[in-house]
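Customer escalation, tier 2.

The customer says the design service returned an amino acid string that "doesn't look like it belongs to this structure." They asked us to rerun it and document both sides in this ticket. The original structure tokens are below, unchanged.
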């Protein structure tokens, strides 16, 4: 039967192994050097092996000590990380979400206060991206993406449809009485090459060569449009504030579908309580948006 190993002895060994000194370990643990030495010796006796070679100046670890140290360091780090999440008698759960930048600024940010008010013990961490994200390697619980809902190894819940429409300044809009007038304007492009071609088809006009700048973010592209750099083709839903304040105008009502916004997560990943709360809140908010 495996011997009982006191937590204090394991802690004394782990600290001594990091410092290679009983004295520095004693300072860290707020005990005497003799107490640390005694705890380590007791651990060695119970394991039936030597963990340190005692040298005239400090300590040297044996192979057995080298094998044990990383396991204990990881365990104590994980315990400490969990304990730090307790505050005021409540457990604070961290939730990490990757969000495509356009959605984050144009839709999610104005609503985050309601989530925080409803679930103050969920510590939300948002990481923006340009729709290129790896849930596993980036350690994300969720990713909010724009597309058709099919990403390898992921599950997805549709949040919002976001058809693309023309957006520009009022000054440029005044020059556009019909879609064919776009021939004289700079057309700003996203990384999706077919967006303008599809819009021309929906407008019933022949496609024209497009030589405008290319942006990896609709948010950045529309910011250029607001500066008068040209006409953007973007999801108007993400720019309600700019349209309401008159900084942007929709010169035509013609829209094309390029995709939707989706909440995605890894297949097989267990849903934490924070994940469940956030996904339910997000779906409810999106449903309310669609119904309004």
């Amino acid at each position: 039967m495996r011997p009982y190993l006191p937590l204090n002895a394991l802690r004394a060994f782990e600290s001594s192994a990091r410092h290679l000194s009983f004295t520095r370990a004693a300072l860290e643990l707020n005990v005497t050097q003799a107490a640390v030495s005694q705890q380590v010796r007791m651990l060695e006796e119970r394991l039936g092996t030597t963990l340190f070679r005692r040298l005239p100046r400090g300590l040297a670890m044996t192979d057995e000590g080298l094998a044990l140290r990383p396991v204990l360091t990881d365990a104590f780090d994980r315990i400490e990380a969990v304990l730090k999440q307790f505050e005021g008698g409540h457990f604070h759960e961290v939730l990490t979400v990757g969000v495509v930048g356009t959605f984050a600024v144009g839709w999610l940010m104005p609503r985050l206060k309601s989530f925080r008010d409803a679930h103050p013990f969920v510590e939300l961490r948002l990481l923006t991206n340009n729709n290129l994200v790896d849930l596993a390697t980036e350690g994300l619980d969720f990713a909010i993406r724009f597309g058709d809902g099919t990403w390898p190894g992921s599950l997805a819940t549709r949040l919002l449809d976001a058809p693309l429409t023309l957006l520009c300044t009022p000054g440029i809009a005044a020059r556009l009485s019909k879609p064919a007038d776009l021939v004289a304007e700079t057309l700003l492009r996203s990384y999706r090459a077919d967006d303008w071609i599809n819009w021309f088809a929906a407008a019933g006009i022949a496609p024209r060569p497009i030589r405008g700048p290319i942006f990896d973010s609709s948010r950045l592209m529309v910011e250029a449009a607001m500066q008068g750099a040209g006409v953007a083709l973007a999801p108007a839903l993400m720019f309600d504030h700019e349209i309401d304040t008159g900084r942007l105008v929709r010169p035509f009502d013609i829209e094309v579908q390029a995709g939707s916004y989706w909440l995605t997560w890894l297949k097989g990943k267990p849903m934490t309580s924070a994940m469940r709360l956030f996904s339910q809140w997000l779906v409810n908010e999106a449903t309310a948006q669609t119904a309004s």
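Tier 2 assessment: The sequence is consistent with the input. The two ends are 66 Å apart (CA to CA). The mean pLDDT is 91. Sent an explanation to the customer and offered a walkthrough call.
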